């Protein structure tokens, strides 16, 4: 090597050694020896330190032996390391003529990188700024000896020197003088140079005397990075140099660990502040003060030989997690997440971390977020109240664009954080089977302690937060992504026996799809051998996470909406009250305090509502969620049908009568989550579903509506109707919504949809759904039928159903008429009240209290009128469609009489004298349009007018039929141009039929009003023509019980289930009734003959008298 490569500065006079009395106290020889022995044992067989036998003997280290030969001489006091910076500075810039080899240039560059490039002499201390460098005498270049190389390279790496005259290295870094080792070398008459043999002693002295107010690890970490960089920069090194640097690296790392685990080895007291890796893990790996990847890799490689390293790293991460638990997304949380991301690159570190007691410990639901290791990382979310208040400050005055911008910003931040969480959890999952199991256990524990999140009322302090649960749900969705392909090829890997194989998820207290608690417990008490595969584990964890996590959070939006309306109403009332107490200071102060309190709560609720909306509307999150729910849908249909169903294969309905017990005992949320998720997406994030929805969703809804006995909960079944209905809402270029075209054109829907929705139309009458809920369900059914009615196949199917399944269709039509009768009566019946309220409110003399009362009653009446008129319009419209397609089905004996009475009554309301009471201000506000409703009712008359039975039934309606009403209707239809002329003429011809039929009936009418009580039907009060005995032994007319059973298949007296086949004809009573009726007919005939005879006789007498 060129001897001029590292030309040393001129030697300065050596400073006089400090008097012994001025040195600080140091441990005695025996204590120091014990410490050194412990330290050498930790080194484990590498080159170590060996001391001479005498107190003044030189200390040497054998390259091949790690066992000391004798004690190391220690001064009575360890003198502090005096920074050479305080001594006189001299120029250390090499001569321009110095020759440096390329490989040593690289080493020198690495060691001097803190200074950037080499400084000119004028830039060093001791040279005037900007002054030219003084001329130097050129000396002949000489080859650098290995001993010189060792001294130079170790000095630069560890920033130390045993030569008091050498104050800086070649790059101007200050070197610390080691007086003790220097004195030993002087005593030994050895060169004042660092050597490999004495390196351990040098590190020990430098580390022992490092300032106690600074972390020793900080110094040693810097040394580690320099030695690593030096090693990496070597190109084709000699074995001696490579061995030197590797030994320096080994000793440096060992002392790094000792500085944290055994600070007393360096005469330092233990310090929680200094003896930790936390500050270094929190810095980026590129940061000079942060832990580099080489250090962590070296630590991991030494786990087996040094059992103190793993706990050191684990404790640091536990401390980082603990600190993060006090932070929010408003704080500087990113370094903490990055620390765990760096940590997660090394599987052994994760395995140790998963084995720590705080990874999963028994905690309350909110305690999981702060006291488990991963909890604080998942807790970071914009849904934290403090964060929501920042994103949505002043929510009452925020305009929509500002809200959207804030939501977009929080989505970006949350996406980045969730991506980090995904990487971290993936690393844990892949680390080892044991660690994977621990992570799955942690997720399961979260679900099992958060069941209260789905309760109607719960204390937020007793459950995990929304932000935490959303993050958990998203990460589990991400774990499912690898097996959720578009062809559902891996859906068969999801094992239905999961809950019978020591499942992680607890479902004992969950409502089951179609089993009670006793049956479910019995089923799950029988265990199945084997282990659950990873796909099955993650699938059921994710399903539960949606139930307790994202779906529970989405449901909170409705609660917040109600709270916001409540507080807004109360604030408005308080503000209106304020002028009244303006002169009463005490009351004013109380009112203002309440107003501020309500305003604070309102703004917090509004901010949280906007924040939840922003999180829930994130499209990527919802797209993943939607894909998962499609998988659940296909899997659920496979379990229920016992087939290997996929969307390319068609199911056969109805499902088997023998329901699979595994399906019956599944938690109800397996189906509920699908419905809730799709409903939310249809309503709030429709853009993500454009290309995501498939036939499986329609198959799910139709299957469990057609085979409704598979699902116990009537509200869950009705939500399937709602899902189909929302799928028909027009979106973007889809006039029939996302599902309309599929329901209209797919083979499966064509075959089963109409019967399924009609079946549930009947079923919702008999279930425990609220009385008014059934009208909403039927309204949605009407919308579904209207959407698909353009397909003639459905019309043909309806005709076929009316012929092949007469009883089913009769029940459907009967309920349709019941609904039409009720909703028209309720809707139209509110308008006279509304009309009167509107007149009363125009009275200027009305008191404020009476006005407020009237306004409240008006609002209630308007609300009911609006709801019922919407239902009435749809019900009448559906009857119009059906009567046009199959008029004969509506004129069956069981139906035609009631249908005629309903039509006559409502026609009289719309066109008769009572129509004047229907006039209200702004009728369109209530969806009341007589110009639309009247023609549709007229169409029903015209559709059925060709049936003699219908004509006779209308004419026989003694309550509402009036020929004058029919004529008035014709005038309105013509005068208002509500019908074409040929349709009005058809109406007039029909009216003539009604008139003639009425005349015929009047001629044949016989008065049976004085019938004995035993001959009258006890329910309807009419004379029985076909009496029958019910199972309860009561006697009613057959027509009465037939109509009753159409709506309710139970005995009207005992409420026990029954059918028409259970009645027994009362033959003897029927004979008595017929005999009595025949007697009444004879009496009527005889009376008529007597009257006729009297008339004739009277006329004859009169003629005689005129004569």
UniProtKB/TrEMBL annotation:
Q: Which SMART domains match?
A: Ubox (SM00504)
Q: Does the keyword Isomerase apply?
A: yes
Domain U-box: residue ranges: 1010-1083
Residue spans of biased composition, Polar residues class:
86-100
Q: Pathway involvement?
A: Protein modification; protein ubiquitination
Q: Where is the composition biased (Low complexity)?
A: 52-73
One GO MF term, please? ubiquitin-ubiquitin ligase activity
Where in or outside the cell it occurs: the entry states: Cytoplasm; Nucleus
Coiled-coil stretches, from where to where?
Answer: 550-577, 1066-1093
Biased composition of type Basic and acidic residues is found at 26-35
For this protein, what reaction is catalysed?
Answer: S-ubiquitinyl-[E2 ubiquitin-conjugating enzyme]-L-cysteine + [acceptor protein]-L-lysine = [E2 ubiquitin-conjugating enzyme]-L-cysteine + N(6)-ubiquitinyl-[acceptor protein]-L-lysine
The record's annotation in InterPro entries points to: Ub_conjug_fac_E4_core (IPR019474), UBE4 (IPR045132), Ubox_domain (IPR003613), Znf_RING/FYVE/PHD (IPR013083)
Is Nucleus one of the keywords? yes
Q: Which Pfam families match?
A: U-box, Ufd2P_core
User: Tell me, what is an example of a GO biological process annotation in this record?
Assistant: ubiquitin-dependent protein catabolic process
What are the record keywords, sorted?
A: Coiled coil, Cytoplasm, Isomerase, Nucleus, Rotamase, Transferase, Ubl conjugation pathway
**Chief location of this protein within or outside the cell:** cytoplasm
Q: Which domain of life is it from?
A: Eukaryota
Family in the record:
Belongs to the ubiquitin conjugation factor E4 family.
- Protein's UniProt name: Ubiquitin conjugation factor E4
- What is the species listed in this Swiss-Prot or TrEMBL entry? Triangularia setosa
């Amino acid at each position: 090597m060129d001897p001029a490569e590292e030309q040393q500065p001129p030697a300065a006079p050596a400073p006089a050694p400090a008097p012994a009395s001025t040195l600080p106290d140091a441990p005695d020889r025996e204590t120091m020896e014990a410490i050194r022995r412990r330290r050498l044992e930790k080194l484990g067989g590498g080159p170590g330190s060996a001391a001479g036998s005498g107190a003044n003997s030189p200390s040497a280290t054998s390259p091949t032996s790690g066992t000391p030969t004798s004690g190391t001489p220690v001064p009575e006091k360890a003198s502090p390391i005096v920074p050479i910076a305080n001594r006189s500075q001299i120029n250390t810039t090499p001569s321009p003529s110095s020759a440096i080899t390329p490989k040593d240039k690289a080493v020198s560059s690495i060691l001097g990188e803190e200074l950037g490039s080499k400084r000119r002499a004028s830039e060093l201390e001791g040279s005037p700024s900007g002054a030219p460098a003084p001329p130097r005498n050129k000396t002949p270049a000489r080859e650098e000896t290995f001993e010189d190389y060792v001294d130079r390279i170790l000095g630069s790496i560890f920033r130390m020197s045993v030569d008091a005259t050498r104050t800086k290295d070649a790059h101007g870094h200050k070197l610390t003088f080691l007086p003790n080792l220097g004195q030993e070398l002087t005593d030994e008459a050895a060169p004042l140079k660092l050597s490999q043999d004495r390196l351990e002693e040098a590190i020990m002295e430098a580390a022992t005397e490092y300032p106690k107010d600074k972390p020793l690890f900080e110094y040693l970490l810097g040394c580690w990075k320099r030695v690593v960089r030096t090693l990496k920069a070597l190109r084709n090194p000699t074995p001696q140099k490579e061995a030197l640097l590797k030994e320096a690296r080994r000793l440096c790392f060992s002392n790094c660990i000792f500085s944290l685990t055994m600070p007393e080895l360096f005469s330092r007291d233990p310090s929680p502040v200094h003896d930790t890796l936390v500050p270094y893990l929190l810095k980026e790996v590129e940061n000079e003060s942060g832990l580099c990847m080489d250090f962590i890799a070296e630590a991991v490689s030494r786990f087996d030989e040094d059992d103190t390293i793993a706990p050191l790293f684990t404790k640091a991460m536990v401390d980082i997690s603990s600190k993060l638990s006090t932070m929010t997304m408003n704080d500087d949380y990113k370094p903490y997440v990055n620390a765990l991301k760096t940590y997660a690159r090394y599987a052994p570190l994760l395995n140790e971390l998963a084995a720590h007691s705080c990874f999963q410990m028994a905690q309350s639901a909110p305690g999981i977020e702060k006291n488990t290791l991963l909890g604080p990382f998942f807790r970071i979310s914009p849904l934290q109240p403090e964060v929501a208040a920042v994103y949505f400050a002043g929510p009452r005055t925020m305009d929509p664009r500002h809200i959207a911008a804030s939501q977009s910003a929080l989505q970006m931040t949350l996406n980045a954080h969730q991506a980090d969480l995904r990487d971290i959890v993936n690393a844990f999952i892949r680390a080892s089977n044991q660690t994977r199991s621990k992570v799955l256990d942690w997720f399961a524990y979260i679900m099992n302690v958060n069941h209260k999140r789905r309760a109607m009322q719960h204390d937020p302090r007793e459950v995990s937060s929304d932000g935490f649960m959303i993050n958990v749900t998203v990460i589990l969705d991400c774990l499912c992504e690898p097996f959720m392909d578009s062809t559902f090829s891996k859906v068969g890997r999801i094992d239905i026996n999961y809950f019978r194989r020591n499942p992680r998820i607890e479902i004992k207290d969950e409502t089951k799809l179609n089993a009670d608690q006793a049956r479910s417990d019995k089923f799950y008490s029988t265990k199945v051998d084997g282990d659950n595969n990873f796909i099955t584990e993650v699938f059921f964890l994710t399903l539960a996470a949606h139930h307790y996590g994202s779906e529970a959070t989405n449901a909170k939006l409705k609660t917040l909406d109600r709270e916001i309306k409540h507080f807004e109403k109360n604030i408005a009332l308080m503000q209106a009250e304020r002028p009244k107490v303006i002169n009463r200071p005490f009351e004013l102060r109380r009112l203002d305090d309440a107003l501020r309190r309500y305003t604070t709560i309102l703004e917090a609720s509004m901010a949280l509502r906007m924040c939840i909306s922003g999180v829930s509307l994130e499209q990527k999150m919802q797209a993943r969620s939607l894909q998962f729910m499609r998988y659940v849908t296909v899997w659920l249909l496979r379990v229920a049908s016992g087939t290997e169903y996929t969307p390319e294969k068609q199911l056969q309905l109805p499902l088997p009568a023998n329901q699979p017990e595994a399906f019956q005992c599944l938690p109800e949320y397996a189906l509920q989550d699908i419905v809730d998720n799709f409903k939310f997406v249809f309503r709030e994030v429709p853009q993500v579903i454009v290309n995501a929805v498939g036939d499986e969703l329609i198959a799910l809804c139709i299957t469990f509506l057609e085979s409704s006995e598979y699902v116990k909960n009537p509200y869950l079944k009705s939500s399937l109707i709602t899902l189909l209905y929302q799928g028909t809402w027009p979106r973007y270029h889809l006039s029939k919504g996302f599902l309309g075209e599929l329901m209209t054109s797919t083979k499966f829907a064509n075959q089963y949809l109409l019967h399924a929705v009609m079946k549930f139309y009947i079923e919702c009458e008999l279930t425990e759904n609220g009385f008014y809920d059934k009208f909403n369900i039927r309204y949605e059914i009407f919308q579904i039928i209207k959407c698909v009615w353009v397909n003639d196949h459905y019309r043909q199917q309806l005709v076929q159903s009316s012929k092949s399944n007469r009883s089913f269709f009769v029940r459907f039509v009967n309920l349709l008429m019941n609904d039409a009768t009720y909703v028209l009566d309720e809707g139209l019946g509110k308008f006279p009240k509304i009309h009167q309220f509107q007149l009363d409110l125009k009275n200027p003399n009305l008191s404020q209290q009476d006005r407020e009362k009237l306004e409240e009653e008006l609002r209630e009446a308007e609300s009911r009128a609006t709801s019922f008129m919407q239902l009435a319009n749809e019900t009448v419209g559906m009857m119009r469609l059906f009567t046009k397609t199959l008029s004969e089905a509506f004129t069956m004996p069981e139906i035609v009489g009631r249908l005629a009475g309903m039509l006559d009554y409502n026609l009289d309301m719309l066109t008769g004298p009572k129509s004047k009471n229907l006039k209200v201000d702004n009728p369109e506000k209530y969806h009341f349009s007589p110009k639309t409703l009247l023609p549709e009712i007229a169409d029903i008359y015209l559709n059925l007018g060709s049936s003699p039975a219908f004509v006779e039934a209308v004419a026989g309606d003694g309550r509402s039929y009036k020929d004058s009403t029919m004529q008035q209707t014709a005038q309105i239809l013509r005068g208002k141009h509500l019908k074409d002329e040929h349709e009005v003429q058809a109406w007039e011809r029909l009216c003539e039929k009604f008139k003639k039929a009425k005349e015929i009936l009047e001629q044949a009418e016989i008065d049976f009003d004085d019938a004995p009580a035993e001959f009258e039907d006890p329910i309807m009060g009419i004379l029985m023509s076909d009496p029958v005995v019910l199972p309860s032994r009561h006697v009613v007319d057959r027509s009465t019980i037939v109509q009753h059973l159409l709506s309710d298949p139970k005995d009207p007296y005992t409420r026990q289930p029954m059918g028409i086949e259970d009645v027994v004809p009362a033959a003897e009573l029927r004979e008595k009734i017929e005999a009595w009726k025949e007697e009444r007919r004879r009496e009527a005939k005889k009376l008529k003959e007597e009257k006729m005879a009297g008339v004739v006789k009277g006329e004859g007498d009169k003629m005689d008298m005129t004569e």
